[in-house]
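Figure S7 source data.
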Amino acid sequence: NADMAMYEAKRKGKNTYQFFGHKLNERIYRRFEIEKSLRRALEYEEFKLLFQPQIDTITHAITGAEALIRWEHPTLGLVSPGEFINVAEDSGLIVPIGKWVIREVCAHIKDWIVARIPLVRVSLNVSPRQFQDENFVDYFTQVLSETGVSGKWIGVEITECGIIQDVQYAQKTITELRKMGIAIDIDDFGTGYSSFSYLMDFPVDKIKIDQTFVKDLHLEKAAAIVKSVISLARNLNILSIAEGVETEEQSKLLTSFGCDEQQGYFFHGPVDKGALIDLLTDEL
Ligand code: C2E
Ligand code: MG
Ligand code: MG
Ligand code: MG
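Tokens for the predicted C2E complex:
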């Protein structure tokens, strides 16, 4: 796209080239601004969580929700995690941000218990560096005991590259999390190195089929891969969930393949906690 813009600009002459330069500056400025203000974002309470429901393929009941972080930047507006999680990983800020996510999810669940909202499991994303942090499990233990929330209401989503870096450490960490009742979901399954061997080494609860496969589900090859992943999961006694389900056609295909759960705009986008509570109580 940048190449196209450059080509167009050159074709149109000098003035447009300057315009393109201006846009490039804007992008660099934005990145600079993100790096600079990320450090203060926690302190200024600029993060919030949205929740995207996950539904049972057969009953269409909500079985869980994924917590997705949002950054409301005072001048840049809403910054998506795609723009700042990498920056946070590089600078190490992902560790305190990840701790905030853990605290926030547990605080919400505690509120829902008090308000007698019918609970579902809330899954949170853990990036590789956060997973590698030596205090990760201890911090989780501490927050669960402080809030009195049981680990059975929590899931963690980790990517394959997050676990294959240090298999022994991952095995120990995952075993400790599962002892606390926390579910382990493999995020973006099929896009990483996908050495299946870790599936023998770790107890995994759910495989999340990446949205790139779901997007191409109308193509024979993508459909074959998705079918195979679903049967792989079933044979290993692991649940399967497809993410990024946007159309009825995709949903029907996934249902016919025997996918256990689905998540995507076709059912619900990410919603704020009030809307999630409405959805959970409406189901009664
Ligand atoms: P992910 O965990 O794979 O999350 C799925 C992404 O797909 C989310 O983007 C979600 O809003 C989006 N999505 C959901 N349904 C659909 C759909 O039907 N179609 C399409 N095209 N997209 C859909 P989001 O919220 O922008 O998050 C992007 C990524 O940022 C996440 O990918 C996750 O890797 C990361 N992330 C989000 N929240 C956190 C967090 O609290 N901590 C960490 N470490 N990473 C996070
Ligand atoms: Mg995820
Ligand atoms: Mg994912
Ligand atoms: Mg993804």
